[in-house]
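Encode chain A's predicted structure.
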Amino acid sequence: MPTVADCLRQHGEAFLQQCSEKITLQQRKVLSAIQRCRTGELGHVIFECAQCHHQHWVGRSCGNRHCPNCQHEKTQSWLQKQSDRLLPIHHFLVTFTVPEELRGLLRACPNEGYVVDVEPVQDGRSVLKYLAPYVFRVAISDNRILECTESTVTYKYTPSGSKTVLTKTVEGWKFVRGFLQHTLPKGFRKVRHYGWMASNSRTTLD
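Encoded structure for chain A:
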């Protein structure tokens, strides 16, 4: 099955020809990184079998946070790290949404806001498993790509509020454009950790 990277390699040049004046420097970097991910253009890592001493050359990953390949590994690493730091207590998941238009009002009248949903989640592990894919989610994952031809890309999707899986075929350069529209600004952080969960915290479980 084709991957997102395969589609970007196939149709990236056509996209640049169509949208060269509108693409940002950050989008160019994302496109270039994913196109070269694990191809060997970024260097290699050599693994040697301890028994037969046969060497395996593997292309380096790009590490870009928009890359489906790299984010899958980061998802598992983040999930393990956060699970190890959970306290042996009952946890609660607090969810609230603040529309941008209301932020100023809510700051001025904090006691009048934050429809807030609070649910008990036992030891918290189930919530971490739920959150992990969202923390490192990219525009579209490899398992949704069905076909990549010389001119088109076909992928599957599930409409909001529905459980029906549909397929859609678009021009290749338009697929690249749609993918890069999800490029995050430089320095944008999806998740912030506080207290003992912060990366620089020296607080131990004991």
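The helical segments are 4-19, 25-36, 68-84, 103-108, 125-135, 172-180.
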